[in-house]
Amino acid sequence: MELSRPMTISTTSPREGLETNYEEHKQKWAGGLQRVLCMQGGDDDGSYAKNSEAPASAITLSKPLLLTAIQSLNLKLFSRIEEEKDCCIRIADLGCATGYNTLATIDMVVECLRKKYIHECGVEPEFEAFFSDLPSNDFNSLFRSLPAATTRHYYAAGVPGSFYGRLFPKRKLHVVVSLSALNWLSQVPDAVLDKRSAAWNKGRAWINGAKKEVVEAYAKQSEEDLENFLRCRKEEIVHGGMLFMLMGGRPGFQHPENQLGDPDSSAKHPFATSMDQAWQDLLKMGLIDEETRDGFNIPAYMRSMEEVEVAIKRCGGFEIQKMEYHKIMEHSEEKHKEWIRDPVSYGRAKTNMVRAALRPIAEAHLGPNISEELFKCYEKQVSSDITLLHKTGFYGAIAACLIRM
């Protein structure tokens, strides 16, 4: 993982030397998000591989839609297998991260297509699976998790790069999936990081409940990003091929400043109140100044169904086969009961989930030592707020299946 050089903090006065180092970090943070943004690698308790229950739940709920879409593919349009003795079907997972979710999805897609080809064409094509994410992704952990070549029905390759740009040659791919990745933006909007701007997001780490100008800046960035993503996939996917997108989202009636829905979900979401309180604790401890706090913004946006549909129609070249919204409980009822009995365990689990998503960018902004203090403050906040344990939080997800026309 490529991160900015850590900040050096004096042991006698935490604030001494901060401004010079922060300016250096701010330039790298603002201009190089794609170099540092990734899910936490490895397989320890703070890794994404061990803390991806919510994305897994969303994938499980959208699985019937994905399988139905694959079954409905027109193989004659999809490929000319009857004329090509050496046909290879190419599948890509964009924003693959690490762990079980990407591997299980690729296995499922390959197996479904393999059976479909055998049944309809009487032949079994070869499959090539591309696992793509930003260069900072832990590809080593991912490929160590791959099933043995003798037991899987596909050849595997890694493709580092941003899916907001081109990753493959024209008409290269047959099936593309992107799972719980498109809610991450290509960058924090410039206006949000500018103290002179009306969109300066003072005192917040994210946009839920933020002022109008901040939300508008994020919405504009989200719109540009999704249109760029779709235009690139339009070039890369063969006619008759499929694009399946699963992303964090919100229902259409919900305004963008309300990213999370009901008050309980807002209170429990890892990016919202408890995160802001943790940053405030760092400020009170003298480990950071206000500029450092206000310069950190989480590059995520939950789109509405309408925003996704508008981007698809504006891009052209795709037909929406089906699109649906899911509301997902943040964790199982069994875990909920367990954590009510043990709030410390809840705080630890919640913090591990936050580490899995934010540790790389927090370290790029603060350096490893202070970023670890941030997560300790977060854990203390969550563990001590007993009222959170008696709330039920939900995540929203949008699943969309598109056919390349």
TrEMBL record:
Region entry Disordered, spans = 1-22
Gene3D superfamilies this protein is in?
Methyltransferase, alpha-helical capping domain, Vaccinia Virus protein VP39
Which keywords describe this protein according to UniProt?
A: Magnesium, Metal-binding, Methyltransferase, Transferase
Is Transferase one of the keywords UniProt gives this record? yes
Family annotation (InterPro entries): MeTrfase_7 (IPR005299), MeTrfase_capping (IPR042086), SAM-dependent_MTases_sf (IPR029063)
Q: Which SUPFAM superfamilies match?
A: S-adenosyl-L-methionine-dependent methyltransferases
Q: Which domain of life is it from?
A: Eukaryota
Q: Name one GO molecular function term.
A: methyltransferase activity
Any one biological process term the GO annotation gives: methylation
The UniProt record lists the keyword Lyase? no
Which Pfam family is one of those matched by this entry? Methyltransf_7
Task: List the signal peptide residues.
Answer: none
Tell me what this protein is called: Gibberellic acid methyltransferase 2
Q: Which organism is it from?
A: Quercus lobata (Valley oak)
